[in-house]
Queue: 2 jobs
Job 1
Amino acid sequence: MAKTDSPRTSNSVLVLGGGIAGIKASLDLAEAGRQVYIVEQKPSLGGFLPLLDRQFPTNDCNICYLMPEGGASQGLQRVHTLPMSHLSELKGSVGEFTAAIETKPRYIDTDRCNACGACLAACPEGAVVFTPGLDTNSPTCLRYPQATPQAFSIDMEKCTKCGECLKVCHPDAIDLDMQGSSQELEVGSVILASGAQVWDPTPMEEWYGYHNFPDVITSLEFEQLMSAAGPTGGAFQRPSDGRRPTRIGWIQCAGSRTTKPGGNPYCSSICCMISMKEAIWALEHFDRDIEATVFFMDMRPMGKDYELYYQRAKNELGVNFTRCMPHTVERNDKTGDLVLSHLDDAGKLQEAHLDIIVLATGFCAPADAAEQAAVLGIEMSSQNFVAAEDFAPVSTSRPGVYACGMSLGPQDIPGSLVQASAACGLASAELAPPRGLVLAESMPTEKKITGQEPRIGVFLVDWGNVVKESVDSEAVLQAASGWDGVVFGTQLELAHGSRGLDKLEEAIAEHDLNRVVVAGYSPRTHGNLFAEAVRRAGLNRAMLEMANIRDQDALVHRHDRTSATDKAVALVRMAVAGVRRAQPMHPVKLPFNPDALVVGGGVAGMSSALSLAAQGIKVYLVERSRQLGGLANELFRTLEGGSVADELGEMIAQVQDEPNIEVLTDTLVVDHQGQVGAFITGLQSGPGMYYRQVAHGVTILATGAKRYEPTEYLYGADDRVMTQLELEQRLGKGEAGDLLDTVVMIQCVGSRNEQNPTCGRICCRSAVKNALWIKEQNPDSQVFVLYRDMRMPFMSELAYRQAREAGVLFVRFDPSNPPKVSQEDGNLEVVFTDPILDQPLAVEPSLLVLSTPQLAADENTEELCDIFRLQQGPGGFLLEEHPKVKPVDTPAPGVFAAGSVLAPASLAEARTQGLAAAGRALTMVSKLSLVLDNPVAKVMPERCAACLICVRVCPYDIPFINADGYSEIDPAQCLGCGVCAAECPAQAIQLQGYEDDRMLARAEALLEGIL
Amino acid sequence: MITATRKPMEEILKSVEPFSKILLLGCNECVTVCHAGGRKEVALLGAALRLGRLQKGLPMEVEELTLERQCDPEYVEELSRTIDQYDAVCSMACGCGVQTIAERYPSMPVMPMVNTAFMGASESHGVWAERCAGCGDCVLGYTGGICPVARCSKRIFNGPCGGSTKGKCEISNDVDCAWQLIWDRLKELGQTELYSKLMEPKDWRTARDGGPRRIVREDMAL
Amino acid sequence: MSDFEPVVVVFACDYCAYTAADVAGRMNLEYPAGIRIVRVPCTGKVDSLYVLRALEKGADGVLVAGCLDGDCHFKNGNLRAAARVKALKRLLDEINIGSGRVEMVQMSAGQGAVFAETARNFVATVQELGPNPIKHAASQAA
């Protein structure tokens, strides 16, 4: 069927699911010049994200970065959103799929609907839906006003077709007889991002009392309760009696890590962090008299540096943590208290009295996961998540179909984003090679207007009658006609979806306008639309200024037409004053070298290199040592039992055979200069330290980590004491035989302590893997694992259960009372306290295994940071651009990072991050030229006093004092915040569009006539 | 660099009371760099003056201008054609600038808008500290590059006084003892023998004690 | 309450307060019409001069409206603005215009209700303070 050698022609990707993973995948692909179809079953995009107020670990809101409008400006027009739709059939094969899409009727024309809200107000049955975003009934905090698409929909099950909404809809967007539709799309590859659903505690209500007791709620319900937009309007009240709760308990693993019917056997991975976030938030927002207690079995803050978040919650922020096995929830009818019975660490039954119990519910596969898998023709795991493997972490069983986000299992936002970018990299390889963006070539040349007197046109734009109802438009136009430079004014009737903009373009030509004011919508939402129209009419995009007389005037002052009209006049006058001083802005266009440099030849680096090379990009892969493979060379098998050596060997062979990859082993990076698209990096190779320079456009850093060399527990002094990696070597070579009689493993050696407060992240999984392997080689072995928290995310929890069933004994120790190891007369002895017996036990092991972490490779990483001008975070690992929203980007544009240089990483994580960094890099290299169109700060050299203030205040360290002795700001790097301009004591820096004279003219025009 | 700070508004408003039209004059040198009298500060003070006067019901015209350097006659000459239209010049330059204006335009009242503070260096963004007292006889070569004249509260020359505690000066815990700094640096340099060398009483005539000072370079005189 | 309807200029950051104001409108929340918004890319761009000029031209109050702490799109522009507002307040007291006429406020993009409430509260505060004192002088001069 699949003709792998046929030329790939498709440039389109189908993305199934419009949550954060699907959005990220779509934006990355679109930015790389691909056409994307996002198919989403709900009326609008967003998934879980808009339901959350704050996000760990930064506890801030990053929604503006994550959602389409804020995520990327370039390429958005290449994303086609198909809401209320699903895939019904996927024919064909990789590179040439045909996808059949069914769309349900929305009953509202998204091209016409302007989201004015009149239908919502008019509908007596509450059948009008607008989620997420502005629906005040929705649990969102309204941080995200931009639903995509920005239109309502009607729930036909509730609708009685009374017709009230039809009367109030000015744009005539409602069609209650709308029919569903179907279509076929030709796509080269498919990305599944259909997410997961929150586990419903109903089947386990006999344990948790959910439904029986109104004060038992889920964590998402708790977010609503605390949200200002929630059912209580921000008042903190418990559901049963409206009392302000002070004792709040979170029950972890509600429905997870259980074999009870109705529950899930795996760990949901992110609920520990969600509960901690909620507890911290409750303490911060509702005063310190709140007792916030987390009832847990093991705390599993799995992400990078999440351990530090846990320690802060526990030691600084006052969250209580009770280690226990939660049992049942009862209610004391006299006091109204909820009573949580639980078995404490010593196995004794305890009771906790609480006002509210929050169930830290996990996630499970969507109800239709199996159905969708059948349509896609892909295999699923026993839990109905996509079955993926360590070396193919975002691939499915069908070539050309990839997966990301929670469809692969419960995970946090950074994890989803990394997978999305990884899937993009692979999905792109199935398409025609990147062609480079087609820039606005069809646009007419810009008219020269320098030296011309301003000829300003004022256009009052209204879709429907929203503005006209509150503002006397004629009066506004009348006032405007008298202002300096205004030569034309009119009202413009537009239909949504830009129909009617041609009239604006015609008017510009007919009246020879050189500057335009559009009064109506917010520049934030509609600025681009009108700027494009102005550009089509032959003017520079900067020759437009918007007066926001709808959202910031007409809608606000509906009951005071006189004031609303006066204010509209002032706002339009401000825009006229601003546009009169407008200067053309020209995007900076730089040539872009598409070659890539990948530093580090481990799993992460090789993954990046292969993914980029598959798209025809030349890659220099630099490795410090003599061989490729990195730390993975020392691994034999995966937790699931797969062979690492086979997979790794195949990967190394692929790298060596790939003509687009130039492998440079025994090579160091010694210097680096230039900027994205035009880097030059100096390398030194071989024993002779031969120096050469390579030119490249993007850089991926994947230099890995190093092993911790333990000083604890007689390591080095006794041959029977070894690390998990050393044990794995022995097990792999079959050399451990007689050592396996009695094995003791000690966890957290060299991590979660004062010297290294971070968690090693993968040592628990290594211990379970090796414990199972020992039992496999010698079923009579006695294996003890001495641990603090067993951190076994998602399906690895099943291996943990399997190990316990195989007889591996897991004994918890407290860091205040760690195991003691001694050796006397050649006998090794480990003494530890059993928490249940509360007594010290002594074991004489034949083998003592230390679970040690990966550490930041100090000097290497420091040197790397020095050369690439990056920073190290806690623990010395490389600091990413943003731990939440840009996990594989670095603050230096065009420089990406992957693998354990960022944090200790498992094989699958290293591979995924490697692919993701390649996917991110592709968004840049596919452009062939770099176009930067944001306003930038400009220096007037004759005014500059070289005082260094701009150099010091710039948040991105862009300005510098040049050889001529004045400040220089690289327009290719400036992000346009204007802080330097506001602080320059010589007024020598001006921000385009916000120049001082223009800002003052705006302010003065706004206030004209007051004095 | 010469550092300065804007005078309190009350004093400024009082000093301009008699005038109804002034020229507010900035300088693009030291006072720009120390955020006291560059273009930006001129604009801010201009707005504040107009507001302050309007508040009193006595509107005042304020013209704003910033010269490249107020302490050089050529730059100051720029004002000659327009200066007559003002009641006064309000200078935001250091004392040198104010006096240069006053000398060139003898009939024009010149008001200082800033207090000239000291010769200092920038410690960090927004922090300037005194580093040189202009004593005319530099000893930094013997004192580890730390000046006992500018940085010792007592300007003493042979080691710290009895008020030096834990490296701080007795006048305030925020003030480092200059002699502690000198000792530390000399140790670092391996030059502690300089510390034991007795310094002769300083000849303060090269400082202000000898009267106003001038520098004359005969080789340059035109 | 007096008949005095203050005019307040709001310098609003595009990433938060300006968006919040749009949201307030779309939520049909009301606030006094004297609130007039000027868009800036970041409150870090708000020059002290803009604030003084607004007062000079007759505004009764000025709000500088930026992102919540830690949320600034440009890392710390909001903190720079807050520091500037603090210094401006001292200056305004010195010239008897009154420090209460200028405030730094913070909110996130979706907080339309916070924007409307902040606007209402500030207008009420300015009503208490009375009209910009220069207006009286200006009307006398005229």
Job 2
Amino acid sequence: MLIRIPSKHAPKPSEITPPEVYRGRRRFLRGMGLAAMGALGGSALLQPAPAHGASLDYMPGPFGTDETLTPREDVTGYNNFYELGTGKADPARNAHRLITEPWTVTVDGLCLNPGRYRLDDFLRPHALEERIYRLRCVEGWSMVIPWVGFELNRIIAQAEPLGSARYVAFTTLMDPENLPGQRLRVLEWPYREGLRMDEAMHPLTILAVGLYGESLPNQNGAPLRLVVPWKYGFKSIKSIVHIRFAEEEPPTSWNMATPREYGFYSNVNPDVDHPRWSQRTERRIGELRRRRTLMFNGYEEEVAALYAGMDLRKHF
Amino acid sequence: MFVVCLLPLAVLFARAFAGLGGGLGANPIEFVMRDLGSWTLRFLLITLAVSPLRHLTGWSAVMRLRRMLGLFTFFYACLHLGVWIGMDLFFDWTLVWDDILNRPYITAGFTAWLLLVPLALTSSDTMMRRLRRRWAHLHRLVYPAAILGVLHFWWLTRADYREPLLYAVILGVLLGWRVVMRWVWKGRVLLQLRGSAE
């Protein structure tokens, strides 16, 4: 028998709005929006809207926070996505260079059900949830982002990894013809990331397909990205085309570039400094003063057990 | 020229208060700090380019600009340091000292600023006259300051070294030119070699 022990952050079942009510409300609001547009029809007040993705249907999910959300324009305008340029504003500017259609996701390696899926087929079986997570960049800034996605463990369950599969490896799209950053040798392309199986199975770990209720903008890693909120942002690999189950720890891009600076685990840890700068504090985008960085980015209660007995200075 | 040297600051103010050029972005303190740091390095390199420029063009009036350019370098360096201490770390002196002592890129940057202090203080005509020959010796500190400044930028860069590399190459040319000229002046180099060095 499975005994579910609710974490203190999980919403009580009574707090969860049933999807039909929720979706109904979204339809209602959308209707209101259209009505308002009609009322304004032809008015000069109508500005060209910034490129927004398609609206998604989703339910609220657990592990929420009541911290202020980082404004959408900052979440989508201040990015590290070196495939689209190394400046913070480059990814938004070059977003159109990432071609997301058609998109194929390959799942293979040590599993019983490998497969190659069209994105729609890959996503269809999974109901979407909103997950409001803190994101802490290794550079010392952070955001609070309402992602929309589903737990990675659903994909893993579907693939049925073998007992020997101890790691999950991820790869970003390789398309140097279109992605300007992949023509620079700043990192070894394609971008690669990886998780230990228990990290990948953890309910906090999600595959995101959207943010702020809409499908992911390209600069945020469309159409499919990983979000691992207790690790530095670079672990949350964007625009995934390949998921592989492996026995050995897979090579990861920043670790390949500078192994002394970026470890495989890269858990947010205020007590282990980056060799070149302190990780003790961070600037939350939109705030003036720095705030103290929390162990595991504030998800200590949920994930500390994964690392029991490990020397986090050695396995940084 | 004085007004031109203030333009980078004016542009920052225009971005900050009038939202020009997309404002300061999502991380304004970081943006301002980077911008002021870049302008410090640019002014430092421009200052170091004055002597070679005069030598190559024979345009001696440019020498009169050298002091002002040097002082603007120091001006932007002070603003850069001030924004870091006052706005980035909010006068948390524990963090400031911890960074200065333990982060090599900050140690380098702070040392570069320290080296510029005596140069700024002795930039007046009076000090120049009073120090005589020692003034020239003292002001050679600008070379280690420039090297440390570029190193500061190099060490804080994460993966894309194109911009710091550009600064390093320009500094290398400016310092290399001086080394070559020294040989020339000391007559250790034959005339043909001077031709190939150009």
